């Protein structure tokens, strides 16, 4: 499986952001399952990100990280494609 994501080191913390479909962040059970699934892959806290039809991001995960990311322009995030086996 391939996913778009980023590993970010900021303010002494390292965390991952993973792009998911909107229905995942809209369902707390699905979102928690996704975070649990991606956690071992990245080895750091994971926050999920989806975009609405206008491209506006929504973040789901640790509140401090989600709040931080909500203030970061999407184009500033070092996105890349990860292959997960």
Could you characterize what this model shows?
The chain is an alpha+beta fold and 85 residues long. It has one domain (2-83): Trna Endonuclease, Chain: A, domain 1. The protein is built from three helices and five strands, in the order E-E-H-H-E-E-H-E. It has helices spanning 22-25, 28-42, 63-69, and strands at 2-10, 13-19, 46-51, 57-60, 80-83. Strands 4-3-2-1-5 form a five-stranded mixed beta sheet, sandwiched between helices. Strand 3 and strand 4 (57-60) form a beta hairpin. It is globular and about 30 Å long. The N and C termini lie close together (6 Å). The mean pLDDT is 96. Keywords: Plasmid.
Structural key phrases:
single chain, alpha+beta, Trna Endonuclease, Chain: A, domain 1, five-stranded mixed β-sheet, 5 strands
A few lines on this structure:
Keywords: Plasmid. Helix content is about 30%, strand content about 35%.
Fold blueprint:
Layout: E1 2-10, E2 13-19, H1 22-25, H2 28-42, E3 46-51, E4 57-60, H3 63-69, E5 80-83
Parallel strand pairs: 2-3
Antiparallel strand pairs: 1-2, 1-5, 3-4
Mean pLDDT: 96
Shape: globular
Query: How many domain modules?
Result: 1
What would the CATH topology be? Answer: Trna Endonuclease, Chain: A, domain 1
What is the total tally of β strands? 5
Give a quick account of the main beta sheet: strands, pairing sense, barrel closure: 5 strands, mixed
Q: Report the C-alpha radius of gyration, rounded.
A: 12 Å
CATH class: Alpha Beta
Please mark out the parts with pLDDT under 50 across 5 or more consecutive residues, or reply none.
none
Widest β-sheet, arrangement of strands: 4-3-2-1-5
Beta content: 35-45%
- The first-to-last residue Cα distance is 6 Å
- Helix residue percentage: 25-40%
Question: How many helical elements?
Answer: 3
> What series of H and E elements makes up the topology?
EEHHEEHE
Keywords: Plasmid
């Amino acid at each position: 499986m391939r996913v778009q994501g980023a590993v970010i080191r900021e303010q002494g913390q390292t965390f991952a952001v993973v792009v998911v479909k909107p229905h995942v962040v809209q369902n707390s059970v699905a979102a928690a399952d996704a975070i649990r699934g991606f956690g071992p892959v990245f080895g750091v806290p994971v926050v999920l990100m989806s975009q609405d039809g206008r491209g506006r991001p929504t973040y789901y995960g640790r509140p401090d990280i989600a709040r931080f990311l909500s203030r970061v322009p999407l184009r500033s995030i070092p996105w890349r494609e990860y292959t997960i086996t």
